[in-house]
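go over my protein:
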Amino acid sequence: MTKWFYLIGMGIIGLAWGSIMSMPYLMLASAVKGEKMGVYMGIFNGFICVPQFIGMLTVPLFYKTILGDDPRNALILAGICLVAAAASLLFD
């Protein structure tokens, strides 16, 4: 019973997550003309994927040395970057 409870819960959360993740693409699709849809979708996807690739390639270089091989320090660094990004929006 417990196993099925968790599987059903994961399925419901997965459906909600999928709809949340598709919303930015839906908003972009409704704002762009049809003949340039592929170009703008590709650029938008690049703005999502390229930072992930940069993080994937650079974090292992300093994870052991600067972050002390501790995942909590990686989360602290992510929080610092989030606050810095938010603060950068205050200045034009």
User: Anything to note?
Assistant: The mean pLDDT is 93. Residues 86 and 92 are 12 Å apart (CA to CA). Helices lie at 2-31, 37-62, 71-88.
